[in-house]
């Protein structure tokens, strides 16, 4: 007889019934994990809170900037994912590399870019992380190792794998983190790159932010294996799941996998189960979400939760928390002022960023310019 | 005859076709529960159910290919590719498979399907989300490519595309969805492969398709106030290409300006210019002029984006310069 | 703590050591399976032998046709895979659909196409399966449900999934079989389609012919999980492995999965471990293969093995076997004669197969024709 | 100065570059153990080891993207895409990523890499394996596209491509690998963006690239025996495109024929024809003529394949007809 692979029973009965609904089972299970504060120093914990609050406030202001038409294009926020973002970034060294999707403002800040430069990018100014050429979806900073936010779903995964290949090639000790969403695990690039990373033993940690939604499509509607970390098995790669609402747990898991990758070169996959508090992007009213679901996302608020935890644990008191909140408010105000005061790119620079090496006969024509 | 938006025309036509042929079904990302990224399919999941309106995982190669396979068995899939930029991920299934099924196997099967997808920049979506790469499809024998610019054409060409037994790339444009126009409800399907003369004129021919066809009309209207009689041609079909209509017009007017949203070098306008320069060789009084996007990865910042994209102003300038070159007097 | 996915130990120690070598472990394990003749009737067993012999002889003649320049392009043979081919095809009804890669001559024959038409396609004649327009890699026959051999690695997988979608849509009881090679499990389309098929519960059986090689690249060099059937787990799909040298075992496994798909609509993945006796294509001398490996492939010869088995089991005697061999020899001779006598396509028909629906202004220009 | 094949020139140049820069590495399917589908990389795995010559799984999007990522960190990957047909599967990584890294992020990083891939039909490989889709790359700002036609150019352009900090699509051709030519060993890298005048002449300009540039030379040689003085231009670089050289030649000769292996409508030749018709408007005595592949999915059967593809014969015919049109007397 032939060998048979394990076949786990799908959570729900068929594809039809999974449409438009969300199976809540796994989610509740995640929320019940005991959130300890771990062995982090009080200072570290307070800093996590500060960073999470900063990202929260930043994103709220980004949304406001959009309404004021200061920010354009698509604008995807990290609201609800602050614990994940800060936990992940705390696991990286400055010299480690990060590739993300288009939902990366918080990552940019937590990886070490000045909030003002992040806001300036949203405002499309020359002082922005990408000189205003990239916008919300395309932040970049060589200094802190943010090697790009990418707007094509899954596009960052092969790139991140290649960066890890370069590290391996040179024998460096940096690690690459590749962030993506749950919906992204269904695209071909995910499969090809996971296989390549495992096959060649490349130091990259693939992080899947499972916020249960890709735009309006639930994980159950899009992934035949909805426990996404289990997909690592198809590549003999280590996979695990962590409560993305728990900054300490995220830091611990990510730190462990990053250090393992640093030491052994082995890749891993980490699934952080999280919430998207608002619509897919600033303009999405998210009408497709059920009332309970939206309510659950609001309730899970990782910033508020962490705040209470720190206060109950005596790491912070109400005044201390309020002080941090005032400070980040000031930081965000300063970021907005910086962005607002920064210059718009000069149209005369339009052709300066097409090629790194100038060559003969490059076309530098404006629409009304004749060819000859 | 109702005045409705381009979006509404697409929506209504899809609905009608679904009502009249149960082999027609919709497939794509976020078309059901989310009601479509640009809301073309709003309400259709509720009306037709999950069998007819199929939300897919993010897997362009996979679901486009699945539509091709379903079409080979006689269904009539209408695929929505959220924007033409993402279609690159499905290009192999479209170019190497859908386009080849009929020819490569000696005519035994075909892939009757419609691939709806919007192009277009100008929304500050940045370099990867603002491209106009219809050229990639227009170049390929075995595919047909249509590009309606008005609500009426959207309806008539969608009907024609669904009646066709070949894969049709149906190009929409982000900037057109909210534009309005009269849509005769009993108009017959359009004829694929035919351009339309949307303004008759005698001084100059302006050629566009999709958004730039509407800009061309706008510029023609501006110029007519100044006594210039511009003929406007809306290509409507990029493949096959209606060279006859183009050349006939230029033989009359003696000069032409092409308005296109894609990049100039190797863009769709190159073929138009080459064809006119050839077919109207003895009639041309000035070189064919092209107005197209600056050849850069489109920047996010508004002042740069604005500078890079063709507009009524740049087209107007080029038309005036061409008229000057041929010695036209207003 | 986070949940952790099982992490099986790779068979060999690192990527480096896997290059250029082949871990033989699994292979030997496969070869030792007890090959019973199952419950098939003697007539069926003899017919399997006849079909396997026919494919063997056909492929040898195809190679010869290539040498004689009667056959052009790429030409990939099923030599060594005859048991797999016949076992798989015996599991399908005529009304079931088959999609394959470019290594499909044997499948075309075993699915029911006259060998003469298959040979005529190789010869590029109008009587060929695709009127001579497709060649070796692109056979097709609506009558017997062969919906195409495809030359783009993985290209057939989305198509097959879509055919299964059409069956499901209409409530039909046909099943789709989608054949592919081991190397093909690393491409994005595999992942996307496996997920879609499992998610939507589509009646398709994905069959991976694991001949340990994609051109010169071994499974160990290309797949991080080299036990390919285990990849089905990433989609909560049933996966199993069968000895592809054993026609009865293949028929049993494929038949079971096909009938399960027919009844429940559930997809499955079947890995048939097999051998490629010759080079990747007719022109490949396969210098990269080690002597032992080439020897092993020769020894495993499924046609010779099955012949002896049938003789030892008394299903055939030497004369009976020889008679079958003479008959298939005659069939192949007839196929060659048919192909040779068939007309070449008329260049005047060049433009007849670009579009199914003629439209205005289609370009029908030869290279020397002017545009106007 | 050695006379070697195009294949050998590529091989030797790759080897030299690997010896001189340890950041240069090769990556692709079957390039190591199998020694390359077309044996360009034969022996290099043995000489340089697995780190420098990396065999990949069949995963075009994955390994091309990995090369882009490695290039972003300063390595110099040379990717082999087995044929340009399979590049469709990696197009998103090339067009939406490699080509945009420099511009989209404001010039902070770039993707210095060479994508080697052969195009070409004529080997009875059928519709999906015989395409000439270099247009897909030539169209894209942020990419550079070169297309050597001789062993010497193969060497000089490969050196230039490796010295460049942008992604370069390096187009080879199945039919050229065995062609021979002199290769000066100390020649400098070519200049990307420059066409070459490979035959000087005064009666007509023939323009080609890759295989068709060699066919153009062949036809020019045939015609010169009959007293026709044809100028031949080998584009060498498709992006940027050297319009000046083209136009200068046609201003002298007064007529032009373009020879291309891809499909006519929207093909590379469309831009060449459009550019010449514009830049040499006052000098052209006849329409620019294009000789290109018939617009069909290329059939397998030899008689059909032969009929569909451009050749010295079809080019010769078109040149003669154009000469006749301009009233040239031999
Ligand atoms: C290839 C591609 N297909 C589709 C899209 C449109 N799109 C943008 S975001 C998104 C959903 C992604 O969901 P997920 O990966 O879960 O990330 P999240 O937005 O939840 O962070 C889609 C479909 C795209 N940008 N790229
Ligand atoms: C997308 C794509 N990449 C590469 C190739 C070239 N190629 C043809 S067959 C092959 C190996 C396939 O191996 P496998 O899937 O194991 O099938 P087998 O040939 O062993 O039957 C490769 C790389 C191709 N045809 N298509
Ligand atoms: Mg998500
Ligand atoms: Mg194989």
Automatic annotation (TrEMBL), chains A, C:
Q: Which UniProt keywords apply?
A: Oxidoreductase, Pyruvate, Thiamine pyrophosphate
What is an annotated GO biological process for this record, any one? pyruvate decarboxylation to acetyl-CoA
Name the domain of life this protein comes from. Bacteria
Q: Which GO terms describe its molecular function?
A: magnesium ion binding; pyruvate dehydrogenase (acetyl-transferring) activity
- Which EC number(s) does the record attach to this protein? 1.2.4.1
The Swiss-Prot or TrEMBL record lists the needed cofactor(s) as: thiamine diphosphate
Known catalysed reaction(s)? N(6)-[(R)-lipoyl]-L-lysyl-[protein] + pyruvate + H(+) = N(6)-[(R)-S(8)-acetyldihydrolipoyl]-L-lysyl-[protein] + CO2
**Dehydrogenase E1 component domain spans which residues?**
50-347
Residues covered by region (Disordered) = 1-42
Q: Which SUPFAM superfamilies match?
A: Thiamin diphosphate-binding fold (THDP-binding)
**Polar residues compositional bias: what residue ranges?**
1-11, 28-42
Q: InterPro entries from the entry?
A: DH_E1 (IPR001017), PDH_E1_Alpha_Subunit (IPR050642), Pyrv_DH_E1_asu_subgrp-y (IPR017597), THDP-binding (IPR029061)
- Tell me the function of this protein: The pyruvate dehydrogenase complex catalyzes the overall conversion of pyruvate to acetyl-CoA and CO(2).
- Quote the subunit structure annotation: Heterodimer of an alpha and a beta chain.
User: What NCBIfam families does UniProt report for this protein, alphabetically?
Assistant: PDH_E1_alph_y (TIGR03182)
Name of the protein in its database record: Pyruvate dehydrogenase E1 component subunit alpha
Could you read off the lineage of the organism from its UniProt record? Bacteria, Bacillati, Actinomycetota, Actinomycetes, Actinopolysporales
From TrEMBL, chains B, D:
Q: List keywords of the entry alphabetically.
A: Oxidoreductase, Pyruvate, Thiamine pyrophosphate
Q: Does the keyword Oxidoreductase apply?
A: yes
Q: Where is the Transketolase-like pyrimidine-binding domain?
A: 4-179
CDD domains in the cross-refs: TPP_PYR_E1-PDHc-beta_like
Q: Name one Pfam family in it.
A: Transketolase_C
The coenzyme or cofactor needed here is: thiamine diphosphate
Question: Which Gene Ontology molecular function entries are recorded, alphabetically?
Answer: magnesium ion binding; oxidoreductase activity
Q: Which residues form a coiled coil?
A: none
- UniProt key word Nucleus: no
Q: Which NCBIfam families match?
A: PRK09212.1 (NF006667)
What is this protein called in UniProt? Pyruvate dehydrogenase E1 component beta subunit
The organism of origin for this protein: Actinopolyspora xinjiangensis
